[in-house]
Amino acid sequence: MNAKPPLNKPYSLPTDVSQTCIREMKNNSCVKVLFCGHQCAGYRDEPQCPPCMDKDCIHKGHGQTGDDNCAVCYTDPLRTAPCILLNCGHKYHLHCVKRILENKWVGPRITFNFILCPMCKQPMDHPELQSLLNPIHELYEEVKRKALTRLQYEGLEKSDQIINSASPYYNNPEQFAMDRYCYYSCFKCKRSFFGGAAQCEDGADDVNLKPEEMICSACSGLQGVLNCNIHGTDFTEYKCRYCCTVALFHCFGTTHFCNECHNNHGRMTGMGNNLPKCPAGPNGKQLTGDCPLGIEHAPNGSEFCLGCGLCSNLQSF
To answer: What is the pLDDT tens value at each position of the chain, 317 positions in all?
Structure first.
């Protein structure tokens, strides 16, 4: 029988990392020896050690061994740093998973794919991650609530995308709403705010928005932004910058468009001072009579807040 390794054996770590990283990993490494006689690959003071990852204790093809690379960093074997066993059964370096949760989503739009296990796409869960996951889950519920309310406001809660059994969103209005609308994190107050339809997302990415440019209506300082006593600024609406229509898109972090002006944004942004006066229709059409919005507003070419859409029920013509 092979002799068991001594208790409190120093954790084996790669030689090509900084001394600071090595000290941190050693301090976080579990010092326990498992019943099988192998060193635990988990982290220090974990309530329950994960199963042994030694290749002699794992049947080939039935689980990750310590010699397998971490599927997050893809640079170091699992045995080179303290590991975590997620509820779904997959193992990663603890510091790699924490880095994913700390970095959050990629790009300006709030998304939540980063909280899914990289291997099986199930939500990541582990007691050691709760301090990072709790605020993310709170943000998810906030965005979901706002997206579903906006979906109902637009009368799309029973759209074909949701009631058609062939649709990927069949009986799943939550996912449909969250994929349909863009929400961003306000640089000032850190709350989520509506940023337009998802089909406009690429336009925002193209101009490389800086974090300090992502400002919600309440923090924007725009003249005339109204705070609803019931809904706050979550459903604040704007007129299209280029005509007298309710805006459906918020692009580049600066500009509100109606659907038609958005589809022809190159032409509209190039009109400069030649925009039609109120009353004006989409695509630079000059109208006669009363303004379709029925209110006095700033000249076309300027941003203008219409107030709470849920309360006023403003509709584009």
So the answer is: 333 333 333 334 344 444 445 556 677 888 888 888 888 888 888 888 888 888 888 865 567 888 889 999 888 888 888 999 999 999 999 999 999 999 999 887 899 999 999 999 999 999 999 999 999 999 999 999 988 988 887 888 888 989 998 999 999 999 999 998 888 888 888 888 877 777 655 444 444 556 776 777 667 655 555 666 766 677 778 889 999 988 877 776 678 888 788 888 889 989 988 999 999 999 999 998 888 888 889 899 998 888 887 776 533 33
Global confidence as pTM? 0.70
Residues identified as active-site:
200, 251
- DSSP 3-state assignment of 238? strand
CA 73 – CA 155 distance, rounded (Å): 44
Could you give the 3-state DSSP secondary structure of residue 265?
helix
CA distance 4 to 137: 43
* 85 membership: H or E segment, kind and range: strand 83-85
